[in-house]
Amino acid sequence: MINLLNYTDRNVVFALFEPIKRELTLSDQQLGWVGSAYVIVLSLAALPLGVLGDLKSRRAVIAWGVGLWSVCTALGATVRSFWQLLVIRSLVGVGEAGYGPAAQALIAEYYRGKRRAFAIGVYSVGMAFGGVLGIWLGGVLAARYGWRAAFVAMGVPGVVLAVLASRLRDPARRPPAPLRAPIGDHFGRHDTRSRQLRRRDRIRGS
After folding, report:
1. What is the pLDDT of residue 109?
2. pTM for the full model?
């Protein structure tokens, strides 16, 4: 459900382009930036927030991400200028960047072996359905109640899901080993292998 909402909230803005353009008097170039803002920010923020999900509670990162993008989606109803809308949509990208890596890692811990691929498949269904639903439902709501109401209607359910996400169980896991540990293991194995080869050569030479 959260991943479904993930894609509805990121795509709803495309259904609202025309009324937003008219009311805020935006250019096509500005609309392009609004549509791309969350993708650019998501790409930049996914790596550090993914690391945070490994170091801290994935449940907390997921709940924080869902809450942030949902609140920012709803706040899209309050904007009065291009820059306000750009910032709001960028923050949607930050929230989604925190959610994605942590959610998939948590699913991988919950489901192991043959069950994991099916679980990831269920998670991935939200991408297609959420993308279509966001554009369709956003257009319907904008036509009936206005584009500002559409932002609110799409954002509010995520606040409820953020509360539910905060109650997820974090599987017990060991903290990640420091980077020097795998590097040391690699060179240790290399040295051991080198000593074995030298010993074999000495035996053959004798």
Report:
1. 85
2. 0.76
Mean pLDDT value of segment 171-191: 54
Q: Where are the domains of the chain?
A: 2-173, 176-206
Per DSSP, 76 falls in state: G
In CATH terms, the fold of domain 2-173 is: Growth Hormone; Chain: A; (1.20.1250)
Average pLDDT for the chain: 85
pLDDT band at 196 (very low <50, low <70, confident <90, very high): low
Q: Which residues contact 12 (CB under 8 A, 6 or more apart)?
A: 73, 134, 135, 137, 138, 150, 151, 154
Residue 40's alpha-carbon distances to 89, 92, 115, 146, in angstroms, are 10, 11, 33, 27
Q: What would the 3-class secondary structure string for 22-68 be?
A: HHHCCCHHHHHHHHHHHHHHHHHHHHHHHHHHHHCCHHHHHHHHHHH
Instruction: Tell me what pLDDT residue 58 has.
Output: 87
Does residue 177 sit in helix, strand or coil?
A: coil
Where helices occur in the chain by DSSP H, the ranges are 2-15, 17-24, 28-55, 58-75, 82-110, 114-145, 147-165, 180-205
- The answer to whether the Cα torsion of 58, 63, 64, 70 is positive or negative is positive
Mean predicted confidence (pLDDT) in 184-189: 54
